[in-house]
Write a structure and sequence with these properties.
Blueprint: H1 7-12, E1 15-21, H2 28-38, H3 47-58, H4 63-68, H5 70-74, H6 80-96, E2 99-106, H7 118-135, E3 139-147, H8 153-162, E4 168-174, H9 186-194, E5 200-203, H10 209-218, E6 223-226, E7 234-236, E8 243-245, H11 247-254, E9 259-261, H12 263-268, H13 280-285, E10 290-292, H14 304-315, H15 319-332, H16 337-370
Parallel strand pairs: 1-2, 2-3, 3-4, 5-6, 6-9, 9-10
Antiparallel strand pairs: 7-8
Helix pairs in contact: 6-7, 8-9, 15-16
Length: 371
């Protein structure tokens, strides 16, 4: 029997977010206020115009151009108070989007232009998260991120480890992949691994299979940030439509390596032309461990509910698909195992069961009315 999945129902669905950048999700109104306090000049001081400017600037089919828009959000995150406010509002916005668990990432080395240390920046982020999670029914962990084009990754890894018991859940590197292989930061990854902490790496977004291979086999990534270029190791037979996986793609699927996929962001950066063309459809069909994420909510003008809507419309996915994706994400999180199970059993499964029942009821009502 068909299921009616409305936009409102998708908003109410319990969701899990593993790939969201703190500096990519500020509210335009907040950017305007904090930029004024910081003496930073913006392209516009009208919230609607500024939101449109960010999206137009990011939607240029090029990752390096996409990253240029962060100049203005990072400028608003140079004091403890500003960082804490941004982190609190992030939690507030995610909770309003139906998200029950999120891992939000940020590079503290981008927040030290006015005298803060990386530790100061992390402490302010965690303070904002705690203030948000105390108020809303959501859990949030921080992924401390190093910039892959810089030379501070080992220092930033040590910062992450100092705050493990305060809300940091793992370590990441981000930034332009081209010319900046993850193996350049091997010392940082080894330091994190030796401390029994967690690693996710931006890999296979704008660059290809070598980036994915290095992240997994050299640097010890447990998850792939994006990982969309794994599609380059899959061939589809023109005659019967069967899929043939190369060794790396087989390894990723066999090992259940989570893919932190961000469809709208990938359209913006030129990975594909539309969400309907995104490899997530094939990868879900082939049972890779796919998760759905927002990447940068301001730049891509997207929410996780919005991502779900686009996937529903592009691939005809139903509640079974969305529950599968959400449980994938929760299983793949860096949250403690017992807490993961509690969220799955007490929030995700009951939430989707109720939505599924309501959708079937709507369908039955519509059928009866048609008769």
């Amino acid at each position: 029997m068909s299921q009616t999945i409305t936009d409102d129902a998708l908003l109410r669905a319990p969701k899990v977010l593993l790939h969201d950048h703190l500096d990519g999700g500020l509210r335009p109104e907040t950017v305007i206020e904090l930029a004024a306090e910081a003496g930073h000049t913006l392209p516009s001081t009208d919230p609607d115009e500024l939101r449109a400017w960010f999206h137009a600037g990011a939607d240029r089919r090029d990752l390096d151009l996409y990253l240029q828009t962060f100049e203005h959000t990072v400028a608003c995150m140079q004091t403890r108070d500003h960082i804490e406010r941004v982190a609190f509002e992030c939690v507030e916005d995610l909770a309003a989007d139906g998200i029950v668990y999120a891992e939000v990432r940020m590079a503290p080395e981008l927040c030290i232009e006015q005298g803060l240390t990386p530790d100061d920046a992390v402490e302010a982020m965690l303070a904002g998260f705690r203030r948000g999670t105390d108020r809303y029914d959501i859990d949030v962990g921080l992924l401390v991120t190093a910039m892959r084009h810089a030379a501070r990754s080992h220092e930033i890894a040590e910062v992450a480890l100092r705050h493990l018991d305060e809300g940091v859940v793992g370590f990441d590197i981000a930034g332009s992949e081209s010319g900046n292989p993850p193996s350049r930061h091997l010392d940082a990854f080894r330091t994190v691994a030796e401390a029994n902490s967690h690693i996710t790496i931006h890999a296979g977004e704008a660059f290809g299979l070598p980036s994915i291979w290095e992240a997994l086999q050299i640097c010890g990534a447990e998850r792939l940030g994006h990982g969309v270029r794994i599609i380059d190791d899959i061939e589809i037979d023109d005659e019967d439509g069967s899929a043939h996986l190369g060794r790396l793609a087989s390894f990723v699927r066999d090992r259940r390596v989570p893919l932190e996929m961000c469809p709208t962001s990938n359209v913006n950066t030129g990975v594909c032309d539309t969400v309907a063309d995104h490899p997530i459809g094939l990868l879900r069909a082939l049972r890779f461990r796919v998760t759905v994420n927002t990447d940068n909510r301001l730049m891509s003008d997207i929410t996780l509910t919005g991502e779900f809507m686009k996937l529903r419309d592009a691939f005809g996915w139903d509640w079974d698909d969305f529950e599968w994706l959400t449980i994938n994400a929760m299983k793949s999180s860096f949250w403690p195992f017992d807490k993961r199970l509690r969220i799955i059993n007490e929030k995700i499964k009951p939430g989707y069961a109720a939505l599924r029942a309501a959708s079937l009821g709507t369908s039955l009502g519509s059928t009866a009315s048609a008769r």
